[in-house]
Design brief:
There is one protein chain. The protein is of the alpha+beta class. It has four helices and three strands; from the N terminus they run αββααβα. 34% of the residues lie in helices and 20% in strands. Strands 1-2-3 form a three-stranded mixed sheet.
């Protein structure tokens, strides 16, 4: 199973999110074609109600520790349902790679 699929499955089982997107951003970096080294996760779950951004990240990183250890970069944007409805899906773009873009 690919790393991206493992991340998706792990987070889906742990948080039963209302929305989950795992984006492989490896192609924007100086890595071989088909790499799975840079990921961005957008997750929406009421498991994040009344938790700080740091607490959310800790929750996600603890659940996905095995997958995170296998990648170079792992970015997380985590929201509860009400925050997500305010954002209307507007998520900041990842910054360009500073380590040598293709």
């Amino acid at each position: 199973m690919k790393i991206q699929q493992q991340i998706e499955q792990t987070l889906q089982e742990a948080f039963t999110p209302a929305f989950l997107e795992v984006i492989n951003e490896s192609d924007g970096h100086n890595v071989p074609k088909g790499s799975e080294s840079h990921f961005k996760v957008v997750i929406v779950s009421d498991d994040f109600l009344n938790t700080s951004r740091i607490q959310r990240h800790k929750m996600i990183y603890s659940v996905a520790a095995a997958e995170v250890e296998r990648v170079h970069a792992f970015s997380v944007s985590a929201f509860d349902i009400s925050e997500w409805s305010i954002k209307k899906g507007d998520i900041a773009q990842s910054p360009p790679c500073l380590g040598g873009e293709k």
